[in-house]
Amino acid sequence: MISALICTPLIAAAVVWFMKPGLHRARVLPVAGVIHLALVLAALARSAHLQPGAWFRLDPLGGWMLLVVSTIFTLCALYAPAYLALRMERNFGVFGVAMLGFLGMASLVAVSRHPGVLWVGMEATALSTTPLLYYNKNKRSLEATWKYLLICSVGMALALLGTFFVAYAAQQGGLGEPIYLDRLVANAAAMPTPWLKAGFVLLLVGYGTKMGLAPMHTWKPDAYGETPGIVGTILAGGVTTMAFLSLLRFYSIMAAAGLGPFCRELLVGMGLLSMTWAFVFMIRQGDLRRLLAYSSVEHMGILAFGVGIGGKATLFALFHVAANALVKSVLFLGSGNIVRSFSSKNLADVSGAMRRLPVSGWCFLLGFLAIVGSPPFAPFTSIFGIASTALGSGRLLAGSLFLALLAAIFTAMGSVILPVLQGNPNPASVRTHYEDTFGLTAPLVLALALALVLGTWLPGPLQTLLSRAALLVEGQP
Amino acid sequence: MIRTLARPALLLLAQMVLTLVLAPLLPGIVNKVKALFAGRVGPPVFQLYYDLARLLRKGAVFSRTTTGVFLAGPAASVAVPFTAALLVPMGGATAPVSFAGDAVVLAYLFGVARFFVVLAALDTGSAFEGMGAAREVTFAVLAEPALFMGLATLARLSGGPSLAPMLTAAGQGWRAAGGPLALVLTAWVIVFLVENCRIPFDDPNTHLELTMIHEAMVLDHSGPPLAAVLYGASLKLWVLGALVVKLCLPHRGTWWIDWPAFLGGMTLLACGVGVVESIMARLRMRRVSQALIAAVVSGTFGFLLLLLA
Amino acid sequence: MTPNLLLAAIMLINFMLVASSRVSKCIQLAALQGGLLALVLLLMHDHWPFHVLLMAFSTAAIKGVVIPAMLNRAQDRMKPQREPEPYVGYTLTLVMAAAGTGLAFILARRLPLQAGNLGTLFVPASIMALFTGFLLLTTRKRALLQVVGYLVLENGVYLFSLLLVKQMPLLVETGVLLDLVVGIFVMGIVINHIQTAFDSQDTHRLAHLKD
Amino acid sequence: MVLQSLYFSALLLATLSGVPGLAGSARGGRVASWMLTGSALCALGLAGSVLYGGLAWQAELRWALPGAHFLFRGDPIGTFILVPATLVPAILSFYAEGYWSDGAHADTAPGLRLFFGVSVGCMILLTAAANAVLFLFGWEIMAILAFLMVTTSDQDAAVREAGWIYLVASHTGALMLFAGFALLALGTGTGFDLGPMRPGFASTSAGTAAFLLLLGGFLLKAGVGPLHVWLPGAHAAAPSHVSALLSGLMLKMGILGILRIIAWTPDPPLWWAGLLTGLGAASGIMSMAFALGQKDLKRLLAYSSIENVSVIALGLGLALAGKSLGLPALVLLGGAGALFHLLNHALLKPLLFMGAGSVMHATGTRDLERLGGLARAMPRTAFLFLAGAFGICALPPLNGFAGEWLIYLGAFRAIQPQGWVWAVVTLASLAVIGALTVACFTRAYGIVFLGEPRRELGGPAHESPRSMTGTMAVLAGICLFIGLFPAALGRALQAAAGDLGPGLPPLGGLAGLGALTLVAVIGIPVGLAAWQAIRKSPSSRSITWDCGYAAPTARIQYTASSFSRMLTDAFRWLLLPIERVPRIQGLFPRETRFQSQAPDTLLDRGMNPAASFVASVLSWLRFLQAGHLPIYLLYVVLTLVALFAWTLQ
Fold first, then answer.
1. Total number of domains constituting chain B
2. Which residue in A151, A252, A318, D386 has its CB near the most CB atoms, within 10 A?
3. DSSP conformation letters of A138-178
């Protein structure tokens, strides 16, 4: 079962690689995505029967994250054939292999029970997405790729060092190979705190770079700005999710070692800093994708803040992973359609998108309202939950700062987005032949509908899964 | 049963008959005093009655610009003081209609009159009448708080927002709270003069339309509507005068002292107005608002003084 | 015998790296550092089982030979051109490296070592290499030098991992080797692209994407 | 069970009212109107049972969402507001059939109808929602729909800007409510289920913060100054029946929130009352000053809405003072006055906005300087607008007066010894506001409907269709009925105000609403008789006399600017009006014109420049991300160093 999770995408990647060039290569993606999603669901349903202590296991935390990533991937995969059909000049092989490779590696990260394997999985995820960044094959995308590669590699090196620090602490605590995560958590109390603290700082900076917490997020706007919306979705909804998961794995060790308060302060600080930074750079942002990139930075900040507040907020932060990923996919895919139809990313040229592209435009508007935390969409639940837990637990300053930043970000973001959507389309820029088609809009509507469902109804099994995952994060079995 | 109903009925009858019959006398007295001061014989005291009778016989001329609102002005300027007269205690201990909050109703009734008179003025499309209307609504903004600060003072003195107990308490309270009451009286006299367009704030007899306030608004009325306006103005003078007079007059409780005292007071007030009109010049328009601000300040200080007492 | 002597040598190489202005020299120094790392690994073990030998060999081969050769090739392929001035001068960088060394020692004092490694310079050396790597990455304009910086940074991580190599060889081997090989390999490809696209490796020119 | 089904039928009928029209049928508008009418009938039935029958109801359902809970509680306050919240939209919907017909607005009408219905559903939800999450759902969805409705004509840049400012304001308010409800949960001890706080909580720092945040959020929605900045623009930009909905009802949802705060707090500190009274007084006077400076009819009406919610705030301030001082009579008079005024404004302001819509429908403009003399072309609209203007001035015998009268009574009671002497502020400000309102609405009616047209309009004005004037007449009729028989609402007011505090005395003993009927019964016949008498007298027609000037033209009329010049001059320090004063030179001066316009000082001179300034300053920080990779890597190092330094300290 577990190996199927990892292998299915890799086999599909191989299939794509050996297929003849043509659009049918792209059609493998949705098939693989749906199968993978089904496998994840089946594995989650059976997860109670799996044995602890193995190298690979799908626990509630990893399962939840993988479910999110698999869903996002499937949405992108459904979008891919219609999108790639618009770009027949490109070779789909690399694209498909990289996408599927990412999914396989993400599955590896989610199921690995060993910090080393976890790290290897993350590194592989990073590398598999590099070709996607260079998809447009121009100077700008090359620059973005270079920055992504270097900043993230440095970050991954730091994360590796952090992992070694933790392992050294485990060694001092009397643990030898194999240092499964479960064993680390169980024996955390005996490890020396200086090493753990230093390790967590390194891991926070390292995986934080990958997540895109400010000020290590600098690769994000460039990378998101120069890639197609579909790649942006995978980066914003997939790679960051896995980085967050990796960070949480170590956070739970820290929490079990009694370092929870220390880590939480760091997380709250980083979270608020990310939101502030994102706010500053969203003001008068002239590029739609870069705006979304900063929104992604903001939401990574919200995740860090939520875990940093602790208690119920941890659960909401985990929920926010899904909420953010779903809505971000609406926004990224929608922005792809809008940018394509106006054939410009420069917002000065784009207006009246809701008239030009009714479906994409409306989805984008609703997505914008959703991402800033308006009910009835999923982000409302998590943002309200995090804010209320912060204030309710007496962290008045942090909580009010959080809400004030959200208000400021809303203002900055909306003043850029609404002029794009409203008004009359600029007659000079309506020359493209692009039109909304079913294949290009159905994934958006589907993602929005999912965000709506999650925002109004959280099924019992999901709630159980989330609360068990939150317990795991807090270092409790 | 009959005895309990008889007293209010008698009061109602006496008060309304006296008001409706005697009100046009007040301008007559004012003008007579002014004439005497100027060394003239002047028009007879009953001049307004003659004027009303003459106007009622004449036909009216309406501008083609006007609509139905044009006649609502004169109608309201009669109906409002008529209704208000029911609420104000005159010779009796109480008014024919008296209830908690009647003071507010009284103030707002005059607002009704102002509303329709101003609209009637605007209805003609005349520049002068528009100007008068603008001034009317502007000065009301200061007159209202002055009136209400006085009411607040009296309400605290009497314990409730009903005119009859308020004014009775005021009449009785000059010994205990002379300072506040004097300030309220100042405020109300100013309001009384402004609202009735008397010198030094407005000149009902001027011939220069540019300086007018109230008269400018009724320039286009003629015949019976003008009669209604003039009669309404005298009723208003009477009702507001009654407020001022009752503020100063202690209530004895015996009708044959109270009623003559009240009527005497009204006469005295009219004479006083005449004297003021004779010895003072009309203020410049800018001064009017300053005088009204003085009235507001005076009313406010009255209230504050009462708080400290 | 403690490995402190070798560690001190590695730290010295760091200073030389920071001070040197020529790319080829930097590559040589980095290769030398890689070789020394393999020696440290061997020194840490009393007897050398196969997997230790294999790891030492592969370290020396990859860090000391393969990657430097690759970088040299990239350097040779480049048209001769003036070395762009670094963002921060060489003297100042050297001072910063010295300050970083001091900090590394302070930091190391806070992190107690296990009984077996007491008194060794692993932690300060590792942190210092990390810092040197960062210095190269942040002050140099040439893409190739930045890769060297990354290499030195990796050496720092590797140095620390040697503390774990006895008990947790698996963790170390998977981590270090994969990271290095794959990372540098991909960077090499991208540098090639940059060379073709921009006709230069001056990363100062790679600043079109900004806010 | 009957009450629950009535409530949910009202909710469903309203929410779904726009759905049948989506199919493109020509009868969609009519179906929506009847569905909303059905909803209103359900609400009336509910109001009869709850307010007059003394029944209460509650409905509860599990909700699979953390912290959330479908909890509905039919308390008298909510039910009282429910009545206008369903009745007025039903009337507006009939109006909209003529005003924003499917024929003339084929692209926007079905969507607008859908949003309209759902937002009414949200309001119905809010009146009974007893769980914070449920409340916020209704609150935010309503706000978003309002934004969508305001920006119906989004081709116009002014409309877009107005909608945007509205959205920012309402989202900020919602975030304040997030925080406020979170802190409130500390005081109620029932999680996110709303209910009374424990005694003493209100005085703690958490209680203070909760109060301020909730008050801020609610006042922002209600539009009490200085939190009104979004309001004038949004009301002016929206289609008129939407403006009517916004102003008449959505603002009232903010008031509902404040009423609920009062009801939940057993022991409010006295400064709460002072704060609310101060805000109400300042905002009431300020808004009227701005209204007098407006040239746009709908902006003028919008400022008048601010004035009216300010008056309501004054009443609520009295109720709060009564509650903290233990004076139940004050709670009753202030609370009942506020509720009554709320109802009255909910009826009158839609009437006025419908009138304004009718004027725009006929002339295509809402610029006062261009209008004039419409009363002859559209007599029905003119008469109904007159009724609305008269009522909004709070003059007897229309309904506007009765509510203010109760507040006055409360204020007079408060200034007695052992009362709350600051109520004198309430008293004085009400008096000033009253006079200013008369000035404002005589100006509005006089300039638009009386005199002669001031500029050439596109064509001759025409009366609006019966569907528009008829619906206005229905509203005016309701207003007149309430004005004549305010005592009919006595029990409802008593019941609703009864939620605000324990042990309230009977309203009849404190305020004889019947007396108002008596005064009306005397005054109206006298007035009508006088009117009839002078109308019957022989008359002839001529031109306006105008002091002998033989050829009066429309140009010499007083204009909107000149009418209010003295007052706007007095408030010059606040309005900072933009004036074009004519320069007259030479013997034969060229044609010139005096013009004056008052932008919203706080928004256009305060917030917008401040926001641009902050944005410029923060844009300067962009050098932080200038594209250089080494700098980016430096950030990573610096973060690392900083975190290590912090860790090891």
1. 1
2. A318
3. SHHHHHHHHHHHHHHHHHHHHHHHHHHHHHHHHHHTT--S-
Cα separation values, A295 from A173, A231, A330, A393, Å? 41, 16, 13, 27
Decide: C145 and C23 in contact? Cβ < 8 Å.
yes
Name residues 95-124 of chain A within 8 A of D (Cβ): none
pLDDT in tens, D413-459: 999 988 899 999 999 999 999 999 999 999 999 999 998 887 776 66
Question: What range defines the domain where residue D284 resides?
Answer: 132-506+514-523
pLDDT bin (cut points 50, 70, 90) of residue D89 is: very high
Give the count of domains, chain D. 1
> What are A338's two structure tokens?
């809008």
B25: Cα within 13 Å, side-chain hemisphere: 13
Q: What share of chain B is helix, strand, coil (3-state, %, to 5)?
A: 75, 0, 25
- B198 in helix, strand or coil? coil
Answer yes or no: do A116 and C111 touch at CB < 8 A. no
Query: With touching defined as 3+ CB pairs under 8 A, do chains A and C touch?
Result: yes
C-alpha distance from residue A212 to each of A106, A205, A206 (Å): 17, 10, 10
Peptide bond just before B260 cis, omega within 30 deg: no
The residues in D 391-430 lying below 8 A from B, measured between CB atoms, are 393-396, 401, 405, 408-409, 412-413, 415-417, 421, 424, 427-428, 430
Q: Centre a 10 Å sphere on the Cβ of residue B250 and count the other Cβ atoms it contains.
A: 16
Q: Which D residues 496-515 touch A at CB under 8 Å? A: none
The b/e string for D96-115 (b: 16+ C-beta within 10 A; e otherwise) is: bbbbbebeebeebbbbbbbb
- Nearest CB to B79 within list D523, D540, D541: D523
Confidence of residue C82 (pLDDT cuts 50, 70, 90): low
Q: Which residues pair with D71 in a beta bridge?
A: D60
Q: Which residues of D touch B151 (CB under 8 A)?
A: 412, 427
CA angle B149, B150, B153 (to 5 degrees): 90
Contact B168, B242 (CB under 8 A): no
Among residues B148, B116, B129, B134, the alpha carbon closest in space to that of B285 is found at B134
Alpha-carbon distances, residue D302 vs A93, D243, D247, D292, D349 (angstroms): 61, 8, 7, 12, 9
Average pLDDT of the segment spanning D609-615: 91
CA atoms of D346 and D348, how far apart (whole Å): 6
Nearest to C165 by CA among C176, C156, C179: C176
Cis before A131 (ω within 30): no
Q: Read off the pLDDT of residues A197-227 as tens digits, 9 standing for 90 and up.
A: 999 999 999 999 999 998 999 999 999 988 8
DSSP A136: G
> Alpha carbon D609 to chain centroid distance?
26
Task: Kindly state the average pLDDT of the residues A118-134.
Answer: 88
**One-letter amino acid for residue B5 of the chain:** L
Contacts (Cβ under 8 Å, ≥6 apart) of B218: B73, B117, B120, B121, B226, B229
Query: Does residue D306 sit within a domain?
Result: yes
Note whether A150 and C150 are within 8 A (CB): yes
Which chain B residues are Cβ-neighbours of D409 within 8 angstroms? 100-101, 104, 161
**Calpha distance B222→D199 (Å, rounded):** 68
Tell me how far apart the alpha carbons of residues D132 and C35 are, in angstroms, rounded to a whole number.
66
Question: Kindly report the CA angle at D213 between D210 and D214, in degrees rounded to 5?
Answer: 80
Inter-CA distances, D338 with A54, A128, D77, D311, D313, Å:
68, 65, 11, 8, 7
Among residues B85, B94, B64, B135, the alpha carbon closest in space to that of B240 is found at: B85
